[in-house]
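User: For my dataset I need records formatted as: sequence, then structure tokens, nothing else. Please produce one.
Assistant:
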Amino acid sequence: MKRLLVGLALSLSLASPAMASVPIWGAKQSSPADTPPSALKPGEWIWGGRGASPGPMAVIVSLTEQKAYAYRNGILIGVSTVSTGKKGHETPTGVFTILQKDKDHHSKKYDNAPMPYQQRLTWDGVALHAGGLPGYPESHGCVHMPTEFAKLLFDATNMGMTVVVAEEGTAPVTVVHPTAVIPIDPRNGADLNLEPLANGQLYRWTPEASPTGPISMVLSVADGRVIVFRNGIEIGRSQVQVRDPLAGTHAFIVASGYMPDAPQRSGLRMPNWITIGIPGHGDEAGKVVDEALVDRVAVPREFMEKVLPLLSPGSVLLATDESIQPASTGPKVQVIDSNPPGA
């Protein structure tokens, strides 16, 4: 995909006074939202989250790309350059969970070296934390991140969160080169079999895959698909056609109330939507979506009858003219936040 877009507001913070004596690694603020991950220089990052929010978090560390991808409720909210273990101290691959969090951690093993915003993956010393970022693997096994990204991630995660460390040849390409759609089960890190619709199949609906939780959706004009997530798990996907699609990527969030009925969707209660002011479209923030725009999107009625009752204020839709299909090399992806207004 051509751009990265961060939904709602880009959360930028400065180091706290308590951290003044500790080195600050990497950029102090997010790169522009349209920066492709492949164009991020060592120490650069993009973030679209704002602390704790509904839906499970999960992180994928690609050793091959030397990048970390953060997901919430199935949608990418942040990407950062990292530095992992050098030769002889390689960062182990596999599925991990956050065992311990320590904002002001210092290493007992390495001469009291500062490891701010540490999130421990193993008891023998492997962790996510702020650290040096030369542009290649140079740590003793930990995953070094820019200080400000590490802080934002630390504030957004919880104990037990899933972290997958993947490398070319040891994991599916969808995990080594992630896209805007989460390629793993956030509950246990298992690879997801992201099956496309079969020939002639209008939609697939499997609500039992995740019976409860917040809803997020991704619509790709290029692919002619919309994917629905509940609590970070795909529960449905459908063919979709968009007449006169908007150029680029736009984000929308469900507001309170419903649109008036219209002949083309008679009997379907379409909620009100407002536009999220993502970077590049900041002037659209808070604008009410009119019925004409909604009616340019054609989705099988049977599918809409299943989805609409699940939508509530705070449900997010990311609509893009780019593909969200898995790629064979590091893709350019979209980032959006799934926070409701005022979260």
